[in-house]
Amino acid sequence: MTSPSSDPSGQADAPSPRTLFFSVFPSIMIPMFLAIVDQTIVSTALPNIASELGDVERVSWVVVAYLISTTIAAPVYGYLGDTFGRRKLMFVALTLFLGSSLLCALAPSVLFLSFARVLQGLGGGGLITLSQALIGEVVPPRERGNFQGYLATVAVTSAAFGPVAGGWITEHLGWRMVFVVNAPLCLLAFVLVARLKKAPGLDRKGWRFDTLGLVYFIGFILPLLLSLEQAQKFDARAGMIIAALLAFSLLCLVLLIRQEKREAAPLLSLYLLRKSAIWQANALAACHGAALTALVAFVPIYLRVVRGASPTETGYLLLPITAGIGIGAIVTGRLVSRTGMTMYFPSVGLVFASLTLFGFAFAAPLMTMGQISLLLTINSLFMGTVMGVVQVTTQTAAGPKMLGASAAAVQFSRSIGAALGTAILGALLFASLRNADPEAAAIFGKLVEDGPAGFAGLEPARVSAMQNAIASAFRLAFLALGAFTTMGMLLAWANPMRRV
Question: Would 77 be classed as within a structural domain?
């Protein structure tokens, strides 16, 4: 029988799983939902925002600003949460998120709205990181698989729900209400978080904030994400700008590593990354983020351009991805809790995820819409084996004093992977189109907007050539997706932490 002192979670007398679920999960579910849904809910409101506020060329900042600030906020909240206590920091993140949401609703210009979205992302990044870390704080290691599975389901469902909710709210209530609806949910989250037990932070005697580390970290992340955003525009003239941004980002990364090695209380714990279980799990999170985000971004374009599906049909065909990942995450979480096994599940799951993507790359032209939907369902079930296991692995390997840092590292890795994967697939797609036909990229843009009507005015032979070029480009893109999941599979197999 394990003694209290040897209990790895420090909670030998932990309550039953059912009690834990009802006392803990609602308190972390709503903050996670708020932060994730606001990543995507604005996308369908952008045309209305541009119509009312003008400044069309800068309206994409509304989305990019949130992405950048959530990525920057993740390690900051992990660092401060480990030091001052995660419950206290959750209140700070909720206050910032609520206040900035109201500022977004009152925005008189795109520039003001983008600034408010930066603040909102600084709150949202904390909600995501702290929700993940709170599981490690109050839930024993063997039960974390269940909770991480539930939380992964919330994250995927929120991301898929965002555009649908954003479109409906914008059409019936106006785009400003997209931000106002956060207010009642934030107030409910305040009440639920207050139910969580207080947990002490670390000894703060002699502690000082790693300001220089944060400056270097922002200098690394900001130009990196901006360069990836520029790469997605597929404009050859942006090459010099991208190169300059990447060079500055690399310089700041070198300075950041040097600073963190010297700092007594570093913002980013390089010590964690020395553990193979942790760095391999984070690399797996990056590969998974790259594959999943790019899949959700490019499958709708494929269905619209190549298969001529309407937006409604595309939405229905994407539902299996959301459902499959949720089911896969929940089943994996329960298996982790019952067996104690961790990396075995993504090790096997990503084998099948890779096979379905490679099969989709070559067989998609021969498949019916129903068969495509079935294949996406199978793929997403196996893709659901990853994120819960990654969080359980990193939190267990990091230990109770570094839960925030480990959760932040996973969130950061996933965000960078998502941005990198989308940029790489977009670059491959358009490079292939330009190589096949210089006009293909321009016509492709019309097809995304108008569907098959974008071929109007072209000779039948020209249409056929274009269709072949576009199909070949998408084949290359889907093969790249399979490469991401294959790299993730190898990392899962190599990870030394197989059980908790």
Answer: yes
Q: Match 């010590």 to its residue by tokens.
A: 271
- Whether residue 280 sits in one domain with residue 196: no
Give me the amino acid identity at 163. P
How far, in Å, CA of 94 to CA of 130, rounded? Answer: 11
Give me the residue label for tokens 């989250």. 189
Q: What is this structure's pTM?
A: 0.80
List the Cα angle 92/80/403 in 5-degree steps.
Answer: 110
Q: What is the residue range of 309's domain?
A: 270-500
346/486 Cα distance (integer angstroms): 11
DSSP notation for 21-84: HHHHHHHHHHHHHHHHHHHHTTGGGHHHHHHHH--GGGTTHHHHHHHHHHHHHHHHHHHHHHHH
Residue 236 resides in a domain: no
User: What are the Cα distances from residue 151, in Å, to 34, 184, 387?
Assistant: 13, 21, 9
Q: How many domains does the chain divide into?
A: 2
pLDDT at site 101: 93
Residues paired with residue 499 on neighbouring β-strands, in sequence order: 341
| Predicted local distance difference test score (pLDDT) of residue 197 | 76
From 172, 200, 228, give the residue that closes a domain.
Answer: 200
Q: Is 128 helix (H, G, I), strand (E, B) or coil?
A: helix
* Residue ending a domain, choose from 200, 218, 234: 200
Q: Please give the average pLDDT of every successive group of 10 residues along the chain, which has 500 residues.
A: 40 60 81 86 79 74 84 87 85 94 91 91 90 81 79 79 80 88 92 79 65 89 82 66 88 91 80 86 92 82 77 71 84 87 93 94 87 89 90 86 82 85 82 76 66 67 77 88 95 89
Contacts of 492 (CB under 8 A, 6+ apart): 284, 343, 346, 347, 350, 386
The answer to whether residue 191 is domain-embedded is yes
Q: Would residue 2 count as lying in a domain? A: no
SS3 assignment, position 18? helix
Residues 173 and 295 in one domain: no
